[in-house]
Write a structure and sequence with these properties.
The chain is built from six helices and seven strands; from the N terminus they run H-H-E-E-E-H-E-E-E-H-H-E-H. The chain is an alpha+beta fold and 217 residues long. It has one domain. It starts with 9 loop residues before the first helix and ends with a helix.
């Protein structure tokens, strides 16, 4: 009689079936997530303000004067959004009158909406260093892109694409460890450390303190 194939124990067979089902479920979720979220809504690792400033080459406040959808001059079939900012304040980097950057855009919704950039927008942008192909973006995507608005008293405030959630997490202890001195207004902002709009002047002062810490290290 020919030898019979060995049968897997029931527990092993069930475990293999479960693992395969779990793999299919995970794959389906990833495919759904890719279709459900646009590029501008893409999940990114949470960063605090120090990490955003550290990752950026420049941090600029200004107004968008030009925004357009344009093909990349070197990379075939890659569309980009080209944004020009009239600079009001250089928090990190050289103080220049205008700054233009090119950001890759893949999702069709983001192409139609120009990644949410509009002429006249008042923004504070922490922008990473352009790549070899001239591509840049806000550090942490929406985390490094702050919309500037006025509160009820007319004071300017800034809010990133995550509603500033986790933005000030761990900042105070990091700056204390480096011996960085902060003014009372910035310390008061850090003491509250809650999501929502932050006073623009204090936020920029904190960014400058983080950038100066890096230079002195």
């Amino acid at each position: 009689m020919p030898p019979q194939p060995a049968l897997l124990p029931t527990s092993v067979a069930l475990r293999s079936h479960f693992d395969f089902f779990h793999f299919l479920s995970t794959l389906c979720f990833l495919l759904w997530a890719t279709a459900a979220f646009s590029q501008s809504e893409a999940l990114t690792l949470p960063r605090n303000l120090a990490q955003l400033v550290d990752e950026s080459a420049v941090v600029l406040q200004g107004r968008v004067t030009s925004v357009s959808l344009a093909p990349h001059p070197q990379l075939n079939n890659l569309l980009t959004v080209v944004v020009t900012l009239q600079v009001e304040d250089a928090v990190k980097g050289n103080n220049i009158p205008t700054y233009t950057f090119r950001q890759a855009v893949i999702d069709k919704r983001d192409q139609q909406q120009l990644l949410g950039y509009r002429i006249g927008q008042h923004l504070l942008l922490a922008l990473i260093r352009p790549s070899a192909y001239g591509l840049s973006s806000p550090a942490g995507l929406q985390q490094g892109r702050f919309s500037i608005s006025s509160d009820a008293s007319g004071k300017l405030q800034a809010t990133n694409g995550f509603g500033n959630t986790g933005l000030l997490r761990g900042i105070d202890s990091q700056l204390r460890a480096s011996g960085t001195q902060l003014n009372p207004q910035v310390r008061a902002m850090l003491a509250e450390s809650k999501p929502g709009p932050l006073p623009l002047n204090e936020l920029k002062a904190l960014m400058r303190a983080v950038a100066a810490r890096n230079v002195s290290q």
